[in-house]
Amino acid sequence: MEIKKIGVLGAGTMGAGIAQVSVEAGYSVVLIDVVPEIVEKAVKGLNKAWAKAVEKGKKTADDVSAYNALLTSSTDINDFKDVDIVIEAIVENIDIKKKVQKQLGEICKADAILATNTSALSITEIAAATNRPDKVLGMHFFNPVVMMKLVEVIPGAVTTDDVVQAVVEMSKKIGKEPVPVKESPGFIVNRILVPYINEAAIVFQEGVASAAEIDKAMKLGAGMPMGPLALADMVGIDIVLAVCEFFVKEFADSKYRPSLAFRTKVRAGHLGMKTGKGFYDYSK
Ligand code: 3HC
After folding, report:
1. pLDDT digits (tens, 9 = 90+) for 165-223
2. Could you tell me where the DSSP H helices lie in 25-118?
């Protein structure tokens, strides 16, 4: 099972990043989002990043032409009919993911793999909604996709070894380090990282220190590349809150209870960098 053509569904931060690393590795990529403005923004963003790389001498104009020749963008999900894999990176909502994955199963060719980029949700549950649960698996990328080397590869209950192997190979070709993980809420990274970010938000909520002081302390005292609250803003506070809530539900353990600071910010629409405000203000 060799993957030659990749479909990416969802042209937000994660989808655009996945499309970028895939075309840079020489794959043909079909990038689809149902919202035309989101696709346009993603393609513009990729070209902006490539133009910067050309300026810095890290890429050539020919590289950029080749990337654009490999990249097709669309708003019509039927354009996935000849891809070998779809990496779905849409909203982190199990019901929507199940509905969309079912639709992908009806559109894609019979042997196409369906991957879902989820922060924490059950692959088995998503797979069971499709006509090919043996070809569904999780591919969990990290933000920013171009910088973070890891991809967690998560088979569902009936995913075949061939499918896992094909995705492991593809992950290596796009410059990532795949780590296979058994299905479990949050897999490895988010199971550990999200409670850490949540604790930082609880410390903030208690008034122990300001967001900047908490972040400074974790960078200088624990060697973190960025502080936990800046990270929450980068990942999206809505995403972190959704993962905490999922953990509470799945583990029935109050130790995952989300900080009130997350709820307040989400209610105010302050989701982090993507809305211009979160623990920090990005509007200036
Ligand atoms: N997008 C794309 N590229 C970025 C970027 C971004 N958001 N931020 C920085 N970069 C690039 C810069 O362009 C630069 O590239 P160049 O070397 O080609 O010029 C390079 O990164 C280094 O830039 P900086 O010196 O400004 O940045 P740092 O060295 O401080 O690194 C970082 C930035 C990689 C974001 C680093 O701070 C880091 O590793 N932070 C932690 C990120 C992390 O934990 N991510 C995982 C989040 S959890 C998740 O995604 C899972 C989800 O399910 C919740």
Report:
1. 999 999 999 999 999 999 999 999 999 999 999 999 999 999 999 999 999 999 999 99
2. 36-55, 61-70, 94-107
| Phi, psi for 93 (deg, rounded to 5) | -140, 120
- pTM comes to 0.95
pLDDT tens track for 64-83: 999 999 999 999 999 999 99
How far is 75 from 34, CA to CA, in rounded Å?
A: 5
How would you classify the pairing of strands 5-9 and 85-88?
parallel
Cβ–ligand 1 distance for 235 under 6 Å, the answer yes
Q: Is 226 in the pocket of ligand 1 (CB under 6 A)?
A: yes
Closest CA to 104 of 129, 124, 125, 140: 129
- Ligand 1 pocket member 175 (CB < 6 A): no
Question: Residue 39 carries which DSSP code?
Answer: H
Ligand 1, residues 14, 63, 147: which to mutate, most atoms within 8 A of Cβ? Answer: 147
Q: How many angstroms does the Cα of residue 144 sit away from the middle of ligand 1?
A: 5
What is the Cα–Cα distance from 139 to 152, expressed in whole angstroms? 6
Q: Strand locations in the chain, DSSP E?
A: 5-9, 28-32, 71-74, 85-88, 113-116, 136-141, 150-155, 177-180
